[in-house]
């Protein structure tokens, strides 16, 4: 019985270490790390950024671009998908309504042009 519990604990520790190793990127720390979607307020990846590891169904929840007081909703102008494998879709409305654009792995858009200042949610997808 004792031996069995030890084996389960060892497995749990290994899982925790593996998870930490693959999820080193931290959302909303102002750094566009590998595995993140990075939204910039201005063209050419300037004007402050917001970086996300996960989906976000609602940009109207108080997020501001890092280092600024500008709210995210309807303000993204340039975008970086810094994930090596996933695609990410931006939506014009909250709750992933009205898809605008899908950006492939390790791809970027320096100016969203006619889609400027519209994004209100995003979701990661398989490519
Ligand atoms: Ca980050
Ligand atoms: Ca919008």
Q: What is the number of beta strands?
A: 7
Summarize model confidence as the mean pLDDT.
88
Number of domains: 1
End-to-end distance: 46 Å
Poorly predicted runs of 5 or more residues: 13-22
Count of runs of 4 or more consecutive helical residues:
1
Name the quaternary structure: single chain
Secondary-structure arrangement, i.e. CATH architecture: Sandwich
Topology order in helix (H) and strand (E) letters: HEEEEEEE
Shape: globular
Q: Over the alpha carbons, how many angstroms does the gyration radius reach?
A: 18 Å
> What fold name goes in the CATH topology slot?
Gamma-B Crystallin, domain 1
**Ligand set:** calcium ion
Helicity level: 10-25%
Give the class from helix and strand content and strand pairing: alpha+beta
Strand order of the largest sheet: 2-1-3-6
Instruction: Provide the CATH top-level class.
Output: Mainly Beta
Summarize the structure.
The chain is an alpha+beta fold.
Explain this structure.
- This protein is of the alpha+beta class.
- It has one domain: Gamma-B Crystallin, domain 1 (Sandwich), CATH 2.60.20.
- 17% of the residues lie in helices and 31% in strands.
- It has a four-stranded antiparallel sheet with strand order 2-1-3-6, with no helix packed on it. It has a three-stranded antiparallel sheet with strand order 5-4-7, with no helix packed on it.
- The radius of gyration is 18 Å and the shape is globular.
- It binds calcium ion (2 copies).
- Residues 74, 92-93, 118, 120 line the site of one calcium ion.
- One calcium ion (CA) is lined by residues 74, 92-93, 118, 120.
């Amino acid at each position: 019985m004792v031996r069995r519990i030890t084996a389960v604990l060892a497995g749990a520790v290994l899982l925790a270490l593996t998870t930490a190793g693959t999820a080193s990127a931290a959302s909303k720390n102002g750094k566009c790390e590998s595995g993140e979607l990075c939204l910039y307020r201005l063209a050419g990846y300037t004007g402050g950024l917001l970086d996300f590891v996960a989906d976000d169904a609602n940009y109207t929840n108080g997020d501001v671009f890092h280092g600024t007081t500008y709210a995210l909703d309807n303000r993204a102008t340039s975008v970086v998908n810094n994930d090596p494998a996933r695609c990410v879709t931006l939506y014009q409305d909250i709750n992933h309504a009205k898809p605008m654009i899908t950006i492939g792995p390790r791809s970027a858009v320096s100016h969203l042009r006619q889609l400027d200042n519209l994004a209100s949610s995003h979701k990661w997808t398989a490519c």
